[in-house]
Every structure is written in C-alpha cells, then in structure tokens.
Predict the structure of Lon protease homolog, mitochondrial-like isoform X3.
Amino acid sequence: MIPNPLLDRMEVIALAGYITDEKMHIARDYLEKTTREACGIKSEQVEVTDAALLALIENYCREAGVRNLQKQIEKIYRKIALQLVRQGVTNEQSLKVSLQQGAKQLREKSTEEPTQIADDGPGGKKLEDGNSHERATTTTLTESEQAIEVSLHEQPNGTATEESEATSHEHLVEQLEADKVQPTLLSSDGIATTDQPVDSKVNIKTSDVKDVKVDNVIEKVIVDVSNLADFVGKPVFHAERIYDQTPVGVVMGLAWTAMGGSTLYVETALVEQGEGKGALLLTGQLGDVMKESAQIAHTVARAILLQKEPDNPFFADSKLHLHVPAGATPKDGPSAGCTMITSMLSLAMKKHVKKELAMTGEVTLTGRILPIGGVKEKIIAARRSEVKTIIFPSANRRDFDELAGNVKEGLEVHFVDDYNQIFELAFGSNSKPQI
C-alpha cells in the first residue's frame, strides 16, 4: 500500500486491459507465429480457427493481459508438435543431408575402383585412362546428386514420413550403385562407351529422378471449438448469462473485478407476507458498502412504488430476501444500487424488466444516480453476454465517448441522472403486471 502523501506526489498512469478484439490480433500477429516457429511447425501443417481462438480467450483467458493466453497457445502447439512427430513428420533438411551423405560415400568408393579397359570404336584402340574413368564417373554421380536436390526441392511441404524417406533413399542409392558398377568411359573421340551395350547402361538423368518424390501424407492438424478441450482441458469460465429473459424479481447488473468486467445478477424473492412484516434479508458475501447500498435501495424502492402504485402495500407487508450470485465470490461497492431497486420493484409490481438490459450506477436516498468506474470493462462484459441495452450514469458519458468505436458498436446506451428515467427504460409505460 502506497502512503497517501507519497501517492499524491506521484504520476499515476492507468492501464486498461485488452479487449477481445485486441487479444485476437495479438494472438494472430505475434503469439501464434512465434510459438509455431519455436515448436518447429510450418504454417501449412496446422490451422487454429478464429472460433477456437475466440473460445480460448473468452472461456480460458479473461485476464486483462495476454500472459495466460500465451501459455495456452504454447500448450496447444506443443501438443500439435507431438502429434505431428507421432505421425512421422521428418525434417526436410535432415532428409537432404542423409541423401547427400549417401551419394558422397558412393563417390568415394567409385574413385577407389581399379582402372577399366574398354574398346574405343572402329579403330579397335584400347583406352586405358584412369583419369577419364574417374572424370566420367564423377560427372554422372554429380548429376545424380543434383537430381537428389531437385527431388527434395520439389517436395510440396518439405516433409515426409519415415517410410517414404526410406523408400526414396533406397531407390536413389540403388541407382547410384548401378552407376558405380557400370561407369561411363570416354574415348579419345569423346564417345561414351561401356562394357555393356549402350541401351543397357544406367545413367541417372534429372528428368528420371524427378519422379522420385517424397509424398507428404501428413494430415493437417485443425484446432476448432469441437476439439479445443483436447489441447487445453475443460473451460475455466462459463457463460455468465443465466436467463434469456430474466424472471420477475431478477435484474442484470454490471460489475468490475480484477479479471475485468462481468455481469452481476440481483435476485429478490418474497419470504413471507403479513401486515407489518416488511423486512430485508441479504446474502451473497456482500461487503459493508454493498450492504448499505441495499438498505438505501430498499428505501428508494418503497418511495418509487408509493409514487407509481399508491395502493400497493407490498413493501410494508413483505419480508424480502435479496441475493447476489455467486455466493462464493466476495462482492462490494455501491454501483449495484440501481440494479437492486429495479429488482425489488420488479417483484413488487410483478413485472419483467426489458429483455437484454443491463444497468450500473450508485443511487442516493433521493434517487439521484452517481458515476461509477470501469466503464470499458463493464461494456465488454455486456457484449460478452449479448446485452444490447445498457444504462449508465450521465456523469460517465465522457468515459464512454473516449472508447474505441469497435467497443461501442452495436450497443444502445442510455445516460440517466435520476432513477425515474431508469424506471421508464426498464419497465416501459405499456408494461403489464405478470400474474
């Protein structure tokens, strides 16, 4: 904790957390690319769909930064690398070096062979020239090595299974062995001759070896929503929206936590009813400030009901139970005041609130709406729960105007100063009681 005198002399810079769109771009443009390269995986060997990446962000990585998101992406690519290795993926460079070493060994052996004698055409001259033999053999082997490199460079993805690698290697070695056994000799006239007829001579040409290719039979690994759990386990977070249409006495609020924004339901139920039994019971691990806010909300709700329905004695004769899920999560703060009032009035008048509506704001005893914090985070939480209409205090309009367009897009936002404005937005003038 920083002492107040020291804090007063410091320049405080508030850093907002990343929104989902920003996390998507960071993951695509940086995290995924660097992780894939670190694992030795090529882009054509794997595909992580946008839907899978979005599910990873919303169901596993809701923190303000991207550190946990990076850990999850690394976990995915490590498992993909293991899966590719088990399928038999071989590094292209290793295959190339292996074949070149085999060709080199054959060339060294061929230079150690004794000089051979061959007839030289019509003159019947004998040609005994070891240098010519070595030059011809070396030339042929060099062509074979070039053919090997051509074959390697023409691989579609530069990968092969162990079986295809062994087959291609063995085939090329056989041709090189044949080349060594029956070398091509040059006569003084530059005519190629061998001990066997010319038609039976083995001569590796680039066009022949082009057919010896290493086929890529490895299936592309696709990570989508259906198999995401196989890589990162079960989701850590679940859908925050409990109701498609909130029942009577239930209203959706918005909260701001260390993990960012979240939706917050306020539920009010009738415990017992009788003359003079009006009371309020609170549960949900509420802090002192939130308990005081609930007491204020109860008082304001009674005043509002007296204005709207003077003959309704609901609050005077009813013991109410107000609960804020989830019960295991501690909660505190005054920003749920307007949500609590709306929840109590919904139960008292037996009316649903407007569908896809969320609200936040502190309320005074006179019904004035005071500003709150975490506007950006609360809007992100509302979008995640597919909320279309949001109610904010008028004092937070400036905070809303500073947000990026993609954050505000598709939302109907209302700014209010008094609770009577919230009442009209939540229940509407044509709203009928629910029997």
